[in-house]
Amino acid sequence: MDRNLPIGLFAALAAALVGSAWQLISRHGVTTTLGPLDIALLRYGIPAVLLCPLLFGKPRGLSKAPRIALVLLVIGGGLPFGLLVLAGAQWAPASHMGIFMAGSLPLFTAIGARIHKKERVQGLRLTGLCCIALGMALFAVGSFRPGSLSWQGDLLFLAAAMLWAVYSLAFGHCGLTPWQGAAFVNGWSTLLLLPLLWFTGIPRLLGAPWPDVALQAAGQGVVAGVLGLVVYAVAISHLGAARASLSAAAVPVLTTLGAAFLMGEPITAAVVLALMLVVPGIVLASGVRIR
Question: How far apart are the two ends of the chain, measured CA to CA in Å?
């Protein structure tokens, strides 16, 4: 067995746990006392400060990386991605975030690989992508309610998943280490965020209850901002972008159960049906052979 496989699988599992926890914390944050920009400041500002020595201490990797890959890293895994997720979390429940983001990631990854590498999707992978598409379509129809704005959040989650697929593919071509990639993405995201904060005024987190700020600082800044990007980058390095996306299979289940247990979100028949199609679809679409 490839020595890289256990490391990659462990990193993928860690990425699933971090991703689910981040979705739950984000939903909690934007529906209580903080806004998207406040949470984004904690999400990118804290890891930018913690990891900035990596950028100044080892600039060689950045100097050799293609500029377009670096730009796509920031767009796909940085501030634009984060703001789409946080804005969507204001309208749609956490279970929607898990299903639409994690479910559509293999779809967008396959599309990106087809455009960039001319990879063909066939056999079980194609079957898996069809299951994902069918599951998300049925979930969208089954969860629609007149007057509800959750569909706006669902569209933003799909857009965010498309950006994350761009990040996954771009990281494979940038030549950076996982830690350098995390430092670069968070550093530039913070610089892009500062002008937005200037125009929007004093952040709400200055007057928010300290337990809410502490929870978001730890969950967004340390767990998601540092650990999340690093473990997912490690998974990509050892498994490839397509196989690393297998970690998304556990995210809808973990997020749905966590939202039900911690936030009281109902597990409806539409959610169960979507999980029954999306989760196996993600496994099949990853292309990983299960022995």
Answer: 12
Residue pair 269/275 in contact (Cβ under 8 Å)? The answer is no
Query: Closest Cα partner for 47 from 68, 78, 73, 83?
Result: 78
Cα(227)–Cα(43) distance, rounded to whole angstroms? 12
Q: What is the distance of C-alpha 144 from the center of its chain?
A: 24
Tell whether the torsion through CA atoms of 198, 204, 74 and 165 is positive or negative.
negative
What tens digit of pLDDT does each residue of 227-280 get?
Answer: 887 887 788 778 776 677 677 788 899 999 999 999 989 888 889 999 999 988
Computed from CA positions of residues 75, 77, 79, 80, in that sequence, does the dihedral angle turn out positive or negative? Answer: positive
Place of tokens 């901002």: 225
Instruction: Tell me the residue type at 150.
Output: S
What amino acid is encoded at 84 in this protein?
L
Count the alpha carbons within 13 Å of 122 in the hemisphere toward its beta carbon. 3
Question: In whole angstroms, what is the distance from residue 27 CA to residue 94 CA?
Answer: 6
